[in-house]
Amino acid sequence: MKVHIIGAGIGGLSVALGLRRIGCEVIISERSCSIREVGAGISLWANAIAALGSLGVENAVRPLTLPVRLAEFRVNEGHRCISRIDLAAKEKDRSLPPTLSMIHRADLVGALAKSIPTATFRWNQTLVGVQSFEDQITAEFADESRVMSDLLIGADGIHSIVRSHVLGNCRPRYAGYTCYRGVCEAPTTLVSTGYVCEAWGRGQRFGVTSLADDQIYWWATCPSPPNETEKNPRERLKELFKNWAAPIPQLLKTTPANAILKNDILDHEPRLPWHRGRVAMVGDAAHAVTPNFGQGGCLAIEDAVVLSRLLRPLVEDLRKRGSVASSSAIEKVFGAFANERFERCRWLAKKSNQMGNLGQWSSGLSVALRNFAIGLTPPPLIWRMILRPTNFDAGQL
Asked: How far is it, in rounded angstroms, from Cα 74 to Cα 81?
């Protein structure tokens, strides 16, 4: 079975790995000229690490990660810690693998791509249309080239062209705030190894975590009109967070201005279908979520395992019979994939939105009540809340 994947990000590469393991011929079309990822970190929770194991690349990825050992939640612009969890001790007591690990996005994408033959990739390919036929699907690109395949998988992100083919014109939703991200170097005296912290103020949030090789990844959010342009985001951030607790002002001073990324926070309203005929979507193309639970990339990796697992019996049957998959057989698999994944993704989208909205409160009274309530939350309950999204098994291939 020949499968054409649109997009060489985390989702597209993960799907390619899964489909190759079950015996599919895979082509990946990517609009960039090479594998590229933004200069930012990404969280890999235990559910994603397990899924990477099913894809056969855990051993390639894990050495590039840094397990989180201590997590703090702070309020009052980071000056007051109201919750601290020693993840290392919790995991040791329960004989658990690392609950959360951090990795640079470029390292993760690079490790996934290295596990796929270079001949699989087609670069500088911008999808402009999809033509469906009874026994094949044709992808059309801006350079007037075409690729025919048995299946087409859209892993082309939140602004997916494949999503438009499946669902029509549906734009992402703006969450009401913008996120700035940066990576810099800092000594362990400023940010200890294996540390993660999120600090909340009035309408702003700031997160800090360590990466491998003494790098620090940070992110900041603040209310902003959508699509707002700024000449110097670094200066705005330095002003917004100048009175926040260490190490926040120091990290902003250390990070080069050209290393700061700015993106409006977007998601898609959870909605089916995720497929149409021989075309299906995975990752952000299907179920983009806000980043407040750090599970967006993890969900895409899970998608790859689940879709490949469900396709495997069909691929094996076709190989035995030497025949081509019917449209009805493919739609049955794609429908089963959406049915298995939708509720989990919908739940995470809902909870992530709620968390983001809570963090963006700015009224003095509401912020005080919010902080008081969070401070009263028992640590075991917080631990269960952290673990709930990670308690998912995508299965084995």
From this structure: 4
Burial profile 284-312: b = 16 or more Cβ within 10 angstroms, e = fewer: bbbbbbbbbbbbbbbbbbbbbbbbbbbbb
Phi–psi pair at 123, nearest 5 degrees: -95, 165
Residue 138: beta bridge partners?
Answer: 131, 148
pTM surpassing 0.90? yes
Q: Which 8-state DSSP code applies to residue 270?
A: -
Strand partners, 222: 178
DSSP bridge partners of 26: 3
Contacts of 236 (CB under 8 A, 6+ apart): 230
DSSP string, 57-114: -HHHHGGG-EE--EEEEEETTTTEEEEEEEHHHHHHHHTPPPSEEEEEHHHHHHHHHH
Asked whether 299 and 352 are in contact (CB, 8 A), the reply is: no
- Calculate ∠ Cα 155-168-35, nearest 5°: 20
Rounded to whole angstroms, what are the CA distances from 247 to 35, 125, 201, 300, 368?
Answer: 32, 42, 15, 32, 23
Secondary structure E strands in 117-165: 121-122, 127-132, 137-141, 146-149, 151-154
Provide DSSP, 378-397.
Answer: -HHHHHHHHHGGG-------
From residue 381, alpha-carbon distances to 56, 77, 352, 374, 388 in Å are 34, 24, 18, 11, 11
Interval 136-186: pLDDT, tens: 999 999 999 999 999 999 999 999 999 999 999 889 999 999 999 999 999
- Summarize pLDDT for 189-220 with one digit per residue, the tens: 999 999 999 999 999 999 999 999 889 999 99
Cβ-contact 27, 122 below 8 angstroms: yes
Using CA atoms, how far apart are residues 49 and 60, in angstroms rounded to an integer? 11
- CA quadruple 346, 350, 351, 352: dihedral sign: positive
Residue 263: what are its φ and ψ, rounded to 5°? Answer: -145, 135
Please give the structure tokens belonging to residue 16: 């390619």
Residues paired with 104 in a beta bridge: 41
For residue 242, CA distances in Å to 158, 177, 231, 238 come to 33, 20, 19, 5
